[in-house]
Amino acid sequence: MYNELINKEKKLAVIGLGYVGLPIALEFAKKISVIGFDINSQRVELMKNNIDPSGELDSSCFEGCDIQFTDSLDVLREANFFIVAVPTPIDEHKLPDLKPLLGATKSIAAALKKGDYVVYESTVYPGCTEEDCIPVLEEITGLKFRDDFKVGYSPERINPGDKEHTLAKITKVVSGCDTESADEIAKVYEIVVEAGVFRASSIKVAEAAKIIENTQRDVNIALMNELSIIFNKMGINTYEVLEAAGTKWNFLRFMPGLVGGHCIGVDPYYLTYKAQEVGYHAQVINSGRYVNDSMGFYVAKQTVKKLIAMGKDISKSRVLVMGATFKEDVEDIRNSKVVDVINEFKSYGVNVDVIDPRANSEELKHEYGFELVPEVGSNYDAIVVAVNHKEYKSFTEADFKKLAAEKAILVDLKGILRGKIKDLTYWSL
C-alpha cells in the first residue's frame, strides 16, 4: 500500500474535513494524491476555493496540494486508504454519540474494496474500532476483516490554534490489526510526520492512550479548579499560590479555568462509559468532570454575589462577557463553557452583552440561543474576560474603565491581568 501511495498509483482519502481532518488531508496532499471527503457540500465548496471553513488555515496552505475535495461517494470509491477524522461528541445525557463515526464508516463501506485500509483517528473508548466500526464495514460490504481489508487506529493529536505542535511535529501513535498492517500504516504516516511514529501493541492500546491524554489533563485541571474554590474562601489568589508552588522542579503546571471544547471536556465521558460497561464506576474521573462542568455556574454566582455586596440591583445590572469560543485564539464554539457563565447570569436576571473577535454570531445563535452584540456598550457593572484571546491581552485598566460603570468588578478567569488592576474591583479564579 505504501509504495503504491508514494507512486500515486493509489489514493488516500480523509473523511471529515474539520479542525483535524483538513490539516491531515493537506499535509498528505503535498506528497501523495488525496481525496478530501465531507458530507457538508457548503464546506466542500469553500475548500475547493482554498478557504478553510474553520478559519485555522490560510489559503497558502492549499497551494501545491494534489487534493480533490468532494461530497460524492463515487469519487470516494477511487481511494484505497481511508482516514476517518470525524468528531465524536457526547449527547445530552453525557453519553458517547457515535452517529458521526458510524455515518463515516457507512460512507467508507460504500467505497471499500479488497486490499483497502481503514484508519480511525477519532477519539473513542477502547474497543470501539473493533466492536462498533468493523462489524458495520463487514456487514455492508460482505468483505471479511483482516482477510479482505485491514483496519488500524492512529489518534489525532492536533491542537486547534497551536501553530507550534502541528501534525508533522507531534509523534504519531499508530496501530494495526496485525503486524503487516501496523507496519504499512506506520510507513504511510511517516510520509508526513517528521517527529516519527510510535507503534502501539494493539488497536485498543492506541485508543486507550489517546483517551487518557485528555482525561489526565481534565483531572489535573479539576484539582486546580477545586483549589481555586477553596483558596477563594480563604482570601488567597490561586495564581499566586501556583506561582510559588511552581518553583519546585517536579510541580505540575496546570491552571484553573473553564474546560470545554470537543476533547478535554468530552473524552473522559467515553472512558467512564466504557468503565461502567465493564462494571467499574470511575470515581476520580467522574468527580473531576463534575468539578469542571460546574465552573461556569460558579464564576457567574461569585460575580453576582460581589455585585450584590457592592450594592448593585441585579435586575438592572449589566455584564459584558469578553469571549465565547471554547479556548483562546480559535473560532471553535463547540462545547464552550462560557455559555454556562452567560446562562447562569441570565438566570439571575442580569443583562448580558457578549463580544468575541473570533466567534460567529449566527453560529452562536443557532447553537446556544444568543448573539454577539454588534457594538460594545459602556457602564457595565461587571466585565468578565472569559477567553484569553490575543486581542484582549493588550487591554489596560484604562481600557476597561472606559467600559465600566462606577463601582464595577473585573473578572479575569485566566489571571492575565493580575497585578495590573488598581481601581476596579478585581477577581480571578
What does it look like?
The chain has 429 residues and is α/β, with parallel strands linked by helices. The chain is built from 15 helices and 13 strands. The protein has 2 domains: 2-201, NAD(P)-binding Rossmann-like Domain (Rossmann fold, 3-Layer(aba) Sandwich); 217-427, NAD(P)-binding Rossmann-like Domain (Rossmann fold). Helices cover 40% and strands 15% of the residues. The strands form 2 sheets. An 8-stranded mixed β-sheet has the order 3-2-1-4-5-6-7-8, with helices on both faces. Helix 8 (203-234) crosses helix 10 and helix 8 runs parallel beside helix 11 (283-309). The mean pLDDT is 94.
Task: Give the strand order of the largest sheet, numbering strands 1, 2, ... along the chain.
Answer: 3-2-1-4-5-6-7-8
State the domain count: 2
Mean pLDDT: 94
Shape: elongated
Termini Cα gap: 52 Å
How much of the sequence lies in strands comes to 5-15%
Task: Outline the secondary-structure elements.
Elements: H1 2-6, E1 11-15, H2 21-29, E2 34-37, H3 41-48, E3 67-70, H4 73-76, E4 79-84, H5 99-109, E5 117-120, H6 128-141, E6 150-153, E7 172-176, H7 179-190, E8 197-199, H8 203-234, H9 238-245, H10 267-277, H11 283-309, E9 318-322, H12 338-347, E10 351-355, H13 361-368, E11 380-385, H14 390-393, H15 397-403, E12 404-412, E13 425-427
Parallel strand pairs: 1-2, 1-4, 2-3, 4-5, 5-6, 7-8, 9-10, 9-11, 11-12, 12-13
Antiparallel strand pairs: 6-7
Helix pairs in contact: 5-6, 8-10, 8-11, 11-12
